[in-house]
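Researcher: Let's run the pair from yesterday's discussion. Sequence first, then tokens, for each.
Model: Starting with the first of the pair.
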Amino acid sequence: MAFRAAAAVVSSASATFIGSQGNPSLQSIHNHFRLKFHPFSPNHPQRFISFPIYQPVNAGFRCQIRAISEATAEPIIPKKEYEEQSPKNWKIKMLYDGDCPLCMREVNMLRERNKSYGTIKFVDICSENYSPDENQGLDYKTAMGRIHAILSDGTVVTDVEAFRRLYEQVGLGWVYAITKYKPIAKLADAVYGVWAKYRLQITGRPPIEQILESRKKGEVCNDSNACKM
């Protein structure tokens, strides 16, 4: 009986081989299908063992799966979610103009340093989610006029003092340490005041009045240099 079963399997395998001559996929199955017979013995009845059939995976399909996997491995975090990941135990909040290219260089530097400290909360005043009520009543126009920072106790600091406080929180207090002296602080504030007054013009952006009007109308510009929302 076992011999008949073996013969039937061999016959089936032969048929598979004949049919596989015109089909590469069936040839692949045939090449990986084997029968192994054990010698006949009175104490061991005839039997056969079939090895598993290997089903090759199309290389191109495998690469597509890998590409899809890699593409979705690191989803893009929306801006709102990123801001919500700010440290809860912050000591100072930095209000910054996210549309100012030069300002963002400094913001990104502080943000990178803050990864080791977790003491600064960054708030983009240009974000549609910005709320003056959550930032000591500082509206967009006021915050655009000069740098503002808010301490954890609600105290608002501006100009060079704001920079000094921020730098102190990420181990760079020595950069602005000299501005603790009033004569130097006044001079530094004067220099910063000039920058704050002309920074829109320097960075190639329209006057604050035009920006406010555009925001009020909800205007969306295709040209990034035409207006900033």
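Model: Moving on to the second of the pair.
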Amino acid sequence: MTRNPLTQLGLWMMRGLQDRASACHGLWQGISGRPDRRKGWLAFVLAAGLLSACTTVQVEDESTAPKISFTNTIWRLVHVGGNKVAPPEPDGQAPFIIFLDDGRVGGFAGCNHFKGTYAVVNGEFRFTEMAATRDVCPDDPVEGPYMKAMRQTVGVKQDNDELLLLNKSGQPLAVLKAQVKRLK
């Protein structure tokens, strides 16, 4: 029975180093018929490399996952004004915000893009110098409440992948989730 070279290498590794020549049917014998140690080691290194490529990778659980940064993270809007934000159309874009390290902020409100700055003013978190594009979207149920929430925000609270924009009484005006790209 003929086996492919990968099967032969696997058998060789299971039988041990002493039995390598007979398990691999002369795969690495030299011209003289004697085992060639260089070819044997080369086959061993290749087999070890192939087998290590087949190992499993342990997935990190939530407790060992790295903390998500407030800045330089795309925060996708999931609730605003007490209402859940519907997922965007397949060709659409979800409302989001991103806070940059230098105090700038930018994002998309559902119809219009916005930008500005953020800062702590008199002990309160504030969006400042805000500007937005002026596209007309009369049927957008998210943009008005989202922009109002940003105007009324005096605090933020981050709990790993969730960010809350808070009003003066500490109640959430909007809830955002970190957009984390994961490999499948």
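Researcher: Give me one sentence on the second I can quote.
Model: Strands lie at 74-80, 83-84, 96-99, 104-108, 113-121, 124-132, 155-159, 162-166, 172-178.
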